[in-house]
Amino acid sequence: MDVINKPPHYQGEIECIAAIKASMTKEQFIGYLKGNIQKYIWRFDKKNGLEDLQKANIYLNWLQTEYAE
Length: 69
Prior knowledge:
There is one protein chain. The chain has three helices and no strands. Helix 2 packs antiparallel against helix 3. It is an all-alpha fold. Helices cover 64% and strands 0% of the residues.
């Protein structure tokens, strides 16, 4: 089970991140991604350690992709 890239609680035909992106402007979505990066980095040493850093990295990758488009 890959709790970082395919968490079991996110299942369906549409990825949650795609639905969130579709509901926002580009600027709003970038802000959403930045907020999640900050959240996971802020709490990693108090909550989920490496898992939170990996999640922050996923959001950072999405942010880089979004910014490059």
